[in-house]
Request: fold
Amino acid sequence: MMLNRVSKTIYDALSEGIVLIDSEERIQLINNAAREIFGFMDTGTIDHPEGKLEEGDIVCIATNSLGADDGYLNAEVLRKLGFRGKIEYGHSFVIAGKYLFEDMDPYCIHEHVYSDIQDYSIEFENIFFNVVIDDIDKYIEIGYGEESYRLDYFYAISNMIVVDGKTGKLKFVQSLGYTSRKETPRELLEGNPFRGKGRYYRLRELIGRKISEVFQPNSTMEALGKVAGGEAVDYVKKFDKFNNMPTLCSIKPIDGGKIKGAILIVENLSNIERAMKEKDYVLTQLNKLQKSIGSGSGFVDKFPAIIGRSGKIRQVKEMAGKASGSNSNLLILGESGTGKSLLAREIHENSPRGDFPFISINCSSIPENLLESELFGYEQGAFTGASRKGKKGMFELAHEGTIFLDEIGDMNIYLQAKLLKIIQEKRFFRLGGDREIEVDVRVIAATNISLENAVKEGRFRKDLYYRLNVLSINMPSLREMKDDIELLVEKLLPKACIKAGVDLKNVSHSALSRLKAYSFPGNIRELENILERAVNLTHEEIITSDSLIFENESVETRNVFRDLKYYAKEAEKRVIIEALIFYDYDLKSVMKDLNIKKSSLYNKIKEYDINIVQKNGNCSKNME
Reply:
């Protein structure tokens, strides 16, 4: 397959990595973004020629989590540096040793360290290294001489430098992409050669080579080969890691007449992942700070189950603190799904009645003819079907504690009168009973309707409304607390994962953005459902925006991708605009560099609605 200059320019302008292979699994195209992701482009920041480790070379290796990184180190290969200890995977590990001098003890740090930042000064054979493993900013740095060599990571990584044992000069420095280049610490210790860097770097020609010769085998590369061979494989936005960098990979078949194969599209999540981790760390530190100064600031969070830090939630918690110290009746107002019942329970548990029963009943979920017997109980033979032993009602069961009447606005007028009497007199009769029962109960009621309007319309007793509304708290809707959505997701997502029986997942930045833009008519309850649905439908570690299904949506009705032509046109438009700006709108230079005819360029300028700036400063969309 021959790709012209314009096509290559377009693909290189894309931020996503593109790898195109034919039906024989040979690479026909790999753009610059893919070369960077897979480590086939040199940054030019390090200079050393190609070569391999030789006997007597001094090797320093540092990993933040042995066995979880891509260093592939084991006890056998570490013996080449004189290490004879027991491997404990998952811990930080630092070693400096002499290559193939197995009888010489290396300098080694192999222990579980709880510090966020580990800093080691190492002296081995009169050579000095400085190693920093920073779990906050996520990097491992090895210093030698006046220079330091740093590798950033997101999960785990191995950093490695080699000093020539004869000259003391730096011989090799690790850099990102080492797994694709087959330069892992294990491979180099086993005698594998390494490539030159900086001015010694030679561009590796990848076109025409089979993917098995270039890439480490994994599930993504296996799927790419299958699709290129004609198999139907569903591979859309699958999470994968290359060089310990998080990516989303999608594979599509290509069948354009003589051209058959598959295309791999790789989205690099590195910046998103780093931003999320940095934000998580800041929020964690802020939470610790708030707890440490809480007693001095006058605000102590007694209601951690009520999630949120926004102003509205703080007001709710402050009012809940006052309500928990009172014995007065309380009315909680708010839309469905805002957590009114959770707040009622929290207030009860923080009140002097916290050691006594909390009885909850939803007035709208029980038929009217049964609600009275549920609330007040009944005596033997009170009605057909009644238990022979009779039954205690909710008010009796809540004695000395709290009864929570959810959706009180749906209670009929007759029961409202009986409820008013029990609130005023603290006693009542069971159905069919002739003995008054005294109770000491605090009433907390909640509703999602306006009781004031219900009073005006005659659907709710005015005197009962005033009895209930001694204290009131308004629960904000999720639309009013968008700043708390990220924190809610952080708290609710692990519960959803446990419920689904899957490993803990994370949420991408794009998914959070989509959640924050949504109106949430069902509030927090709907957010819980959306997360639970996403957890069950996503097999990867990262939940993306495409994994979120909102109300009235289904997997079948949602398009994950746009047409492939859309992405090609967007890239083509971007290239034309950049070329116009670069050549100061000299159309002849643009046509020459992009290898495009005058008529074709003008048609595309018109199609993409690109403004053309003339030399005299005027703008024109259509040029004759």
